[in-house]
Design goal:
The protein is an all-alpha fold and 88 residues long. The chain has helices at residues 2-22, 31-79. 80% of the residues lie in helices and 0% in strands. The longest helix has 49 residues, at 31-79.
Length: 88
Amino acid sequence: MIKRLVVLFILTLVVIGIMNYSGLYNLEFTGTNVLYSYLMILALYTLYMIFYKFFKAIVGLFMLVIILFIIYYIYNFITGNSLDFMPF
């Protein structure tokens, strides 16, 4: 956890340096600017982790539905009977 926070702090310094070097925005290395940049990167990272886990859950449910449909159609092909609990 500490290692991740240190990496995010280094990323903050790199981002400010890239912005200054590219001429995109002249942002000084003051404590306030570094803190705001760090908090913004931390918030974006947190949102990324939340949405990534949510996306993995949706993909997992979608794959489960596809697998169940494949099992249903194989059962239907082999036995010739449809399952009664599935209204197809």
